[in-house]
Design goal:
Length: about 280
């Protein structure tokens, strides 16, 4: 398949705005979104500060942004990008379902509202995972903890159970009822501990002996997507053209830092797309 002009990671306001602008400049655009649209935006009950649309609900604005991008000709994939590599001037993004190839990338995955857990980074790939589909089979017959910061995490836990892992589920949100056959512990994770690999999850309710820890939150840490990406205090470092330190990679929205506001996300998405268009013209 021919490489796309632009791959957008995240179907929130920043990503959709980038997609609309890039389509207006006649570029091929694919938006990969973990959710149909941002659950952060749809949770906004009433928005009073988005210029020109006072009182609009988050759900209404999300639907309008998405249909605008679709009508402009952006293509969508419901998938989660797990990592991106660069080879011979092309970026290859590995989703849970597919691999995507593009000449430029706009990162718009939002910001995780949850800080990483001590030990999470140290044991990444040695017991800590963000993807049950990718790593689940390794844990067949073994004990794992699944830490869910959003309701979608329960599906990951059930998948791990289905393939034969012994799971403990730690919801970090209000779980209305305990799903049958799932051991639920309402505890806050404090640290991932181990030696070569994970041995223990420390929580505020005591230690859990586990061999794996799956973590499902709104967005992966930005440098887990692209290891060479420069960050500033956990946010993607950009200049005023939304350029990151990597050629052809731009970032927009909450992932670049505060203030976490819609108008800013949309504006940054537009600038990022225009910078991608300039990059394509010069490459
Ligand atoms: C309850 C609430 C109310 C709010 N009210 C207001 C308000 O009134 N006014 C205002 O200005 N702002 C408000 N905000 C803030 C506003 O919603 C955010 O600033 C805005 O949504 C940021 O847009 P974004 O596109 O950068 O990120 P997000 O909206 O977070 O969208 C990012 C999307 O990318 C997806 N994603 C993450 N990682 C990946 C991946 N690896 N692969 C594929 N997809 C991925 C995420 O699932 C998400 O859908 C509110 C936020 C909340 C939570």
């Amino acid at each position: 398949m021919e490489a796309l002009d632009l791959l957008v990671v995240g179907a929130g306001p920043a990503g959709l705005s980038a997609a609309i602008t890039a389509r207006r400049r006649n570029k091929t655009v694919l938006v990969v979104g973990k959710e149909e649209t941002s659950s952060k935006l749809t949770r906004a009950h009433r928005i009073e500060n988005y210029p020109g649309l006072p009182g609009i609900t988050g759900a209404e604005l999300a639907a309008r942004l998405r249909s605008h991008a679709q009508e402009a000709g952006a293509v969508f994939s419901l998938d989660e990008v797990q990592g991106i590599t660069m080879e011979e001037g092309l970026y290859r993004a590995f989703g849970r379902k597919e691999t995507y190839t593009a000449r430029t990338v706009v990162l718009a995955p939002g910001a995780s509202q949850h800080a990483s857990i001590p030990g999470e980074e140290e044991f990444l790939g040695r017991g800590v995972s963000y993807c049950a589909t990718c790593d689940g089979m390794i844990y067949r017959g073994r004990r794992v903890a699944v830490i869910g910061y959003l309701p979608e995490a329960l599906a990951e836990a059930l998948f791990l159970k289905e393939i034969g892992a012994e799971i403990v589920y730690l919801p970090q949100y209000r779980l209305p009822e305990t799903p049958p056959g799932v051991r639920v512990i309402r505890a806050k994770p404090l640290a991932v501990l181990g030696e070569e690999t994970v041995k223990l999850l420390r929580t505020d309710q005591g230690d859990l002996e586990v061999e794996g820890v799956f973590i499902e939150r709104e967005a992966l840490p930005a440098d887990a997507l692209l290891p060479d990406l420069a960050l500033d205090e956990g946010f993607i470092r950009v200049d005023r053209f939304q350029r990151t330190n990597l050629p052809g990679v731009f970032a927009a929205g909450d992932c670049t830092g505060k203030p976490w506001q819609l108008a800013r996300a949309v504006g940054e998405g537009q600038v990022a797309a225009l910078s991608a268009v300039d990059f394509l013209a010069g490459s």
